[in-house]
Amino acid sequence: MSSARIEVIEKYCKGCSICVEFCPKQVLEMDAFVVTVARPQDCIACMQCELRCPDFAIKVHKD
């Protein structure tokens, strides 16, 4: 399984939750109006969160 680190750039995140909805492993959650990485160990580096974010607020770094 791929190892990945998810970086959330909070100043860009507008709280749309698109990344949360597209994550197949429910790695992400909303905390107030900003996304958080709730289960980083479950990330499979599919890149859906980064690809779908309209504000470029999330980056997936494959290790």
From TrEMBL:
Coiled coil (residue ranges): none
UniProt key word Kinase: no
Q: Which UniProt keywords apply?
A: Iron, Iron-sulfur, Metal-binding
The record ties this protein, via InterPro entries, to: 4Fe4S_Fe-S-bd, 4Fe4S_Fe_S_CS
Q: Which residues does the UniProt record annotate as the domain 4Fe-4S ferredoxin-type? A: 4-33, 34-63
Instruction: Give the top-rank taxon of the lineage listed in the UniProt record for this protein.
Output: Bacteria
Which terms does the record give in the GO molecular function aspect?
Answer: iron-sulfur cluster binding; metal ion binding
Query: Which Pfam families does its entry note?
Result: Fer4_9 (PF13187)
> Which SUPFAM superfamilies has this protein been placed in?
4Fe-4S ferredoxins (SSF54862)
Put simply, this protein is called 4Fe-4S dicluster domain-containing protein
List the taxonomic lineage.
Answer: Bacteria, Pseudomonadati, Thermodesulfobacteriota, Desulfuromonadia, Desulfuromonadales
